[in-house]
From TrEMBL:
Record key words, sorted: ATP-binding, Kinase, Magnesium, Metal-binding, Nucleotide-binding, Pyruvate, Transferase
InterPro entries per the UniProt record, alphabetical: ATP_grasp_subdomain_1 (IPR013815), PEP-util_enz_mobile_dom (IPR008279), PEP_util_AS (IPR018274), PEP_util_C (IPR000121), PEP_util_CS (IPR023151), Phosphohistidine_dom_sf (IPR036637), PPDK_AMP/ATP-bd (IPR002192), Pyruvate_phosphate_dikinase (IPR010121)
Pfam families in UniProt: PEP-utilizers, PEP-utilizers_C, PPDK_N
Organism: Mangrovibacterium marinum
Start and end residues of each Pyruvate phosphate dikinase AMP/ATP-binding domain: 21-59, 65-388
SUPFAM superfamilies tied to this protein: Glutathione synthetase ATP-binding domain-like, Phosphoenolpyruvate/pyruvate domain, Phosphohistidine domain
NCBIfam families, per database record: pyru_phos_dikin
PEP-utilising enzyme mobile domain location: 452-532
Active site (UniProt): H484 (tele-phosphohistidine intermediate), C859 (proton donor)
The protein's required cofactors: Mg(2+)
Taxonomy, superkingdom: Bacteria
Keyword Amino-acid biosynthesis attributed: no
Job description of the protein: Catalyzes the reversible phosphorylation of pyruvate and phosphate.
Protein name: Pyruvate, phosphate dikinase
Amino acid sequence: MAKYVYTFGNGKAEGKADMKNLLGGKGANLAEMNLIGVPVPPGFTITTEVCTIYNQQGKQAALAAIKPEVEKAVALVEQLTATKFGDKDNPCLVSVRSGARVSMPGMMDTVLNLGLNDRAVQGITQKSGNERFAWDSYRRFVQMYGDVVLGMKPQSKEDIDPFEEIMEKLKEEKGIELDTDFTTDDLKKLVTSFKDAVKQVTGKNFPDDPWEQLWGAIYAVFDSWMNERAIYYRKINGIPAEWGTAVNVQAMVFGNMGESSATGVAFSRDAGTGEDIFNGEYLINAQGEDVVAGIRTPQQITLEGSKRWATLAGIDEKLRESHFPSLEETMPELYAELNAVQEKLEAHYKDMQDLEFTIQEGKLWLLQTRNGKRTGAAMVKIAVDMLEQGIIDKKTALQRIEPNKLDELLHPVFDPEALKQATILAKGLPASPGAATGQIVFFADEANKFESSVLVRIETSPEDLEGMNIAKGILTARGGMTSHAAVVARGMGKCCVSGAGTVRIDYRSRTMTVGNVTLKEGDWISLNGSTGEVCEGKVKTQNPDLGGDFSKIMDLADEFTRMTVRTNADTPHDAKVASKFGAKGIGLCRTEHMFFEGERIKAMREMILSNTIAEREKALTKLLPYQRSDFEGIFEAMAGYGVTVRLLDPPLHEFVPHNKAAQEELAQEMGITMNQLLSKIEDLEEFNPMLGHRGCRLGITYPEITAMQARAIIEAALNLKAKGIDAKPEIMVPLVGTIAELKNQAAVIRETAENVFQEKGDRVDFMLGTMIEIPRAALTADLIAEEAEFFSFGTNDLTQMTFGYSRDDAGKFMPDYLDKNILKNDPFQVLDQEGVGQLVKMGVQKGRSTKPKLKVGICGEHGGEPSSVMFCDSVGLDYVSCSPYRVPIARVAAALANIAKN
Ligand code: ADP
Ligand code: MG
Ligand code: MG
């Protein structure tokens, strides 16, 4: 029989760290911590398989599968804690926690203090001798259970949580501010009012049977896998819905038992910058989410961190010491113990750990550890530091790099000179580094109101996820370095300043005020996530410095890679940028972009609208020098590396003027009437331009175009050769579907090249190849390879033609296809390995069956997408080519692909 429940406690565990798929990350690590002697309250994990049973077959099936195992596991927890579930004198209280394979912070639900009812609260009172604590826990339980299990949580942003409303009312009546100011009698009143609210909304009594509570919470955790924010989080992080969540049931420990109790969150290194500094936040006499939710201002764990925090917050040393002392000061022994645990955990997992702990009456307990989420900059620094500290080897260091996250490092930072001039409005905590400039919005679901927005909130909650993702940056008035906003922003690599306490936010009037400055929705602000500064208006940015750790990672990537990374570049400027990012050659230089500027477009239009070969050749003669000098610039920028130049590709209609003034001007210049011009333009119109007169079909109709381009390329290369610069042209014929097409164009190109060589009395080597972007070309690649010296898979067109989706119209249905799970990914972004991939694989095999050394690459958008790069490596491509800013990503992805293979 399948095993669905894994217990842990007292230094023993049925699971372990590498069982994350089954136990979820949280469950697997709770087991592992037990095994390595870290103090963890006992409990058990219900596997992710049960979540799947629950989702596919329903509650009863899930219950039948696990009931006996759960009862046995509860008995073990009772035994280890010497308590009894549902007992009136000595009740066993547990938490019921979600936990998927990969951590999805705050996305799913957790219930604490489960097992409490009107009898058990008496038992807890007697046992702890602390009545206030007992009722505080009970109050929290009814609230959480009501929100999470009984569906009391408001669904829209206009509604307030009914429990919060009741608490706020009581605070107002009593003239108090903090939850900790409630008396025991207040808490008792709250429990009664909470239960009344539950009855009123749900029509049912609050369940007081602990077993009923437990099953309700377990189902609720399973349900939370399918809640809206979890679905959205999975979507932006590419987590499959099939994985499901595990459920962890664990004996409670209490950070809210008084002044010798506390709860907190800590990181073994800085998750923002990557510095090797232990850091974190805690609160005395508090429970669970209090630190993360930003209800009270959390205090720093280390003395050094506390001092740094005080400086940023503008708090003097006296006030810091009296009101916000560090754990190192308040509980030095427990601090030392915690410090030892974090060192042990980091050494064990060999990665930066993010941990949750609770201190109950002077005893330390760990409740969670995981590899911490971090910014792109921290990811790079931690990988390099750990390599240099000898903790991990080179391959592991590379494997710590998520290629897509490198993107964050390539974005602009504030220009230090401009920063000096800027007006600093406020200072908060540097929660997630980066530079953000945008217009203020106050609600997450309005983040797309402006092109660039900065989301300004008192604090964020998991519901705000989508808006946080859209906004350029996030500013919160409350919350610390471990607040929801901070953790999520670092995960997204989004600039965030949190806990800017001097900022007053008024959602109703949509304004934020600091001192006597009031900004309203739509006003510009700039956030510096590295210093916590909030500046008025826009601040100028500049390119980041990519030396140091970044280049160390890039060098490592080169050490382990087999494929080359080239870039798609149409201008010398792009070629230079890409070459700085380490591109070795150009995989796609599109020539059509060269025809749009100034005088060129006129000559181009004349060429297109010519009636005779003579007219056309005259216009082409005007274009030749432009093309030649463009090629000289690009070849020079990539001297020594291959540059693949694609001959004219788009339908000619794209080049003709579409507004009247330009049409009149052109008619005049060409010496024809408007009517004659318009009828020519009409002639060029096509029903299906993407499947029409384009690519090599143009060159076959008008060989003089191909000849002019070939001449420009060869002349440019020869001119550079004369200057001692090594140009390596590769001429690429687009949209070939039959070998005859390629042969036709190759003849024109070779003949032109020979002519140029004769004229100049010198030669250069060049290659002649083709795009493989029509399915028929992949199917007949063995024939095409007879003529072609290289293949470049144009996976944009190949995807378009294989699926039969027009790239320009796919936006109309693609969102539905993704929502309804018809497609897992947009195939224009992530290469469809199952279908299009087969054509690529076949194209490579057939091509090399004719020419074993045939050079093969890819030049579609996919060339910079990590999973597609992996695929390219596996089918034996020689290179990938992508846009300049994706080159570093592709370099790491290419290395990871090669490592994974060996
Ligand atoms: P999340 O995945 O959102 O972090 P958790 O399941 O980790 O949710 O729980 C939320 C909070 O409750 C955390 O601060 C955690 O440390 C605390 N918590 C969970 N279980 C217990 C427990 N058994 N005793 C004390 N605190 C707990
Ligand atoms: Mg947690
Ligand atoms: Mg194409």
